[in-house]
Structures are given as structure tokens and as C-alpha cells.
């Protein structure tokens, strides 16, 4: 039955009706807040390209963890920035390393907060690559060993979920084996399964001091034009034992997220990355866009496309506005 019998606008009359037929609802439960942890004491310093985002020293994390919990955000993902970097990323699996101490601090301040750790080498290597470098090659298999060791050290420190972000082949299987053989068979793996070599990571690299010293990450991160390949990456990670899959970045890759939603039954996460956040903040600062509204719209779009979890720097603001 077509117009004039059918009128789609009937269900848009007034907020109550719109509320009743709304298909997607963003909730605080969907949010994961990234936190950057640095060495030192009493540090809480802003990241220039990400207004509203701070880097904390371990001793300042307890207050922030409680604040995040009180806002109703269920989880944080931790990124450590060590004082010392070397070729093999020794800090990544140091039992007394920056992220390991941060995990312990957050868990003791707010035990009910789910602590996810980003598992990679790039913050810890002097060359800034996500693996072991020989000549100008990023070597896969030696990198996987180091990455699995880092994941185990995070689990030992008390992490609730480990999230490998390096994009080396076989790292999920290696982490699963390492965790299982060390008594951590209950720790889930959130795999950055479809992580693209994206220009949208710029501000993060300032925050995490992890820009590669030479070359780029295109030999291990995915090529942005590829869509089918993302499903293949995700399928491989599931076969290796991943419990949750992640697509990164989020907004420019909603097609990939929607494909994954149709294809897989596991929970899906999307990383609303630093560049996506920085663009919103910059436009809002200039008065060119309604920042809070545009941010909510972006996150709802990510959820509508299929994400169960959204990693976003806007989590605190959004949680405060969403309320209970
Ligand atoms: Zn990395």
C-alpha cells in the first residue's frame, strides 16, 4: 500500500513515538575507555591532539578508575608508555613494567572494572614497530613469541581480557597456548582481527609515543581497500581461539563491521580511534559542529552497524550524558 495510505512520517511525530520505535540504543554498557599510563609520580597531563584525554602515572590511576566505574563504564583498555625502549621491546613482558603495575593499580582501586590490556610491542620498541625487526623486515614468528610472553605477563598482573593489536599471523593461537599452559585458560582474547593501516591513528601515536622510526605498518596491518580479506582475518583468529573480534578504525569501516555481524556469532568490538575523536573535537572547538550530538551519532552508527562494544575516548562524556 503506497502513499497516501502509507505515511512513514506517522511514526516520527514526537519524541515519545520516536523513542518507542528506535531500533538501536547506545548504553553505558557498550563503552570501553582507553587509558594511557606513563612513568613518574603525580602525572596527569593532557594529550594535545585529543582534548579531554590525559596520560596518568600509575599512582594517579586509582582515582581515575573509581571515577570511570562511578560513571557506569564497565571496562577500560590500558596502554603503557615505558621510560625505556629497546629493539626487542623488553618492557612489554616485564612483570614490573608500566602496564603490569597499572593493571594491579586499577584492579585494586575498582575490582569490578573489567581491565583489558592492549598487547603489542610498538610502545616498547625503540624502532616503534609492532614486532621484531631484522634489517628492514618485521619478522613474524619471533614477534609472535614476544607478543605471547607479553600477554601472559598481563594475565599474571591481573588483566581480565588480553587484546593483541599487532596483526602478526598466528599470534592468537600462540597467546591461547601460552595462557592455557600457564593456568590462565579462563582469560578471553579480544583480537584486533581487522586492523587497517590507517591515517586515523595519528593522535594516538603522539599519546603513546609509538610512531615507527622507519617505514610504516603496511606489511602487517590491512590495506584499507580490502573488505573480503577482513572476514578471512577474522575467521582465522576465531579458529585460533579468539573470543571477541575487533574492527579498527570504526566509522570508515562500518561495512566491515556489518559484514562481520552477519558472518560471526561472537561479540564484536569496534575501535573509534584517536583520529575519529580528534576530528570531532577539532570541528566542535571551532563551532563548526555540535560536538556532543555528532559524537553520539557516530557511536550509535557504530553500534547500528553491529558492534557490541565500542572503544572510544569519548566514553566518559557519553556515559555521563547517557545516565543510567
Ligand atoms: Zn603495535
Q: What is the β-strand count?
A: 12
Give the total of domains. 1
Q: Note the total helix count.
A: 11
**Distance between the first and last residues' Cα:** 41 Å
Mean pLDDT: 96
Please give the share of residues in helix: 25-40%
Helix-and-strand structural type: alpha/beta
Q: Which fold name fills CATH's third level, the topology?
A: TIM Barrel
Helix/strand order? HEEEHEHEEEHEHEHHEHEHHEH
Q: How would a textbook summarize the main sheet? A: 10 strands, mixed
Which CATH class? Answer: Alpha Beta
The CATH fourth-level homologous superfamily: Aldolase class I
Summarize this entry quickly.
The chain is an alpha/beta fold and 324 residues long. The chain has helices spanning 15-20, 58-70, 98-109, 140-157, 171-180, 202-208, 228-240, 254-263, 274-285, 291-305, 315-322, and strands at residues 31-38, 44-47, 50-57, 75-81, 114-119, 132-134, 137-139, 161-164, 190-195, 244-248, 268-272, 309-312.
What does this structure look like?
The chain is α/β, with parallel strands linked by helices. It has a single domain, classed as Aldolase class I (TIM Barrel), CATH 3.20.20. It is about 40% helix and about 20% strand. It is built from eleven helices and twelve strands. It has helices at about 15-20, 60-70, 100-110, 140-155, 170-180, 200-210, 230-240, 255-265, 275-285, 290-305, 315-320, and strands at about 30-40, 45, 50-55, 75-80, 115-120, 130-135, 135-140, 160-165, 190-195, 245-250, 270, 310. The strands form two sheets. Strands 1, 2, 3, 4, 5, 8, 9, 10, 11 and 12 form a ten-stranded mixed β-sheet that branches. The chain has a two-stranded antiparallel ribbon with strand order 6-7. Strand 10 (about 245-250), helix 8 (about 255-265) and strand 11 (about 270) form a beta-alpha-beta unit. It is globular. The termini are far apart. The protein binds zinc ion. Zinc ion (ZN) binds near residues 130, 165 and 166.
Amino acid at each position: 500500500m503506497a502513499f497516501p495510505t502509507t505515511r512513514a512520517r506517522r511514526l516520527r511525530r514526537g519524541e515519545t513515538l520516536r523513542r518507542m520505535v528506535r531500533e538501536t540504543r547506545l548504553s553505558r554498557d557498550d563503552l570501553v575507555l582507553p587509558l594511557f599510563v606513563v612513568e613518574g609520580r603525580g602525572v596527569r597531563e593532557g594529550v594535545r591532539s585529543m582534548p579531554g584525554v590525559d596520560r596518568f602515572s600509575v599512582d594517579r590511576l586509582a582515582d581515575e578508575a573509581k571515577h570511570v566505574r562511578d560513571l557506569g563504564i564497565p571496562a577500560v583498555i590500558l596502554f603503557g608508555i615505558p621510560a625505556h625502549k629497546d629493539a626487542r621491546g623488553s618492557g612489554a613482558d616485564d612483570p614490573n613494567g608500566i602496564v603490569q603495575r597499572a593493571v594491579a593499580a586499577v584492579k585494586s582501586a575498582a575490582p569490578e572494572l573489567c581491565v583489558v590490556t592492549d598487547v603489542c610491542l610498538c610502545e616498547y620498541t625503540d624502532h616503534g614497530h609492532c614486532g621484531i625487526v631484522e634489517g628492514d623486515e618485521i619478522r613474524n614468528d619471533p614477534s609472535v613469541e614476544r607478543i605471547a610472553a607479553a600477554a601472559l605477563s598481563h594475565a599474571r598482573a591481573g588483566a581480565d581480557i588480553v587484546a593483541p593489536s599487532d596483526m602478526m599471523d598466528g599470534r592468537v593461537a600462540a597467546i591461547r597456548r601460552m595462557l592455557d599452559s600457564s593456568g590462565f585458560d579462563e582469560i578471553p582474547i579480544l583480537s584486533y582481527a581487522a586492523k587497517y593501516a590507517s591515517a586515523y591513528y595519528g593522535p594516538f601515536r603522539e599519546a603513546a609515543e609509538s610512531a615507527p622510526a622507519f617505514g610504516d605498518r603496511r606489511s602487517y596491518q590491512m590495506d584499507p581497500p580490502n573488505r573480503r580479506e577482513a572476514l578471512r582475518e577474522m575467521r582465522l583468529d576465531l579458529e585460533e581461539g579468539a573470543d571477541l573480534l575487533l574492527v579498527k578504525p570504526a566509522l570508515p569501516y562500518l561495512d566491515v563491521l556489518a559484514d562481520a555481524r552477519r558472518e560471526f556469532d561472537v561479540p564484536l568490538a569496534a575501535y573509534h580511534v584517536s583520529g575519529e575523536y580528534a576530528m570531532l573535537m577539532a570541528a566542535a572547538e571551532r563551532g563548526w559542529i555540535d560536538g556532543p550530538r555528532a559524537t553520539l551519532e557516530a557511536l550509535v552508527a557504530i553500534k547500528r552497524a553491529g558492534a557490541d562494544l565500542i572503544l572510544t575516548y569519548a566514553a566518559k562524556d557519553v556515559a555521563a550524558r547517557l545516565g543510567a
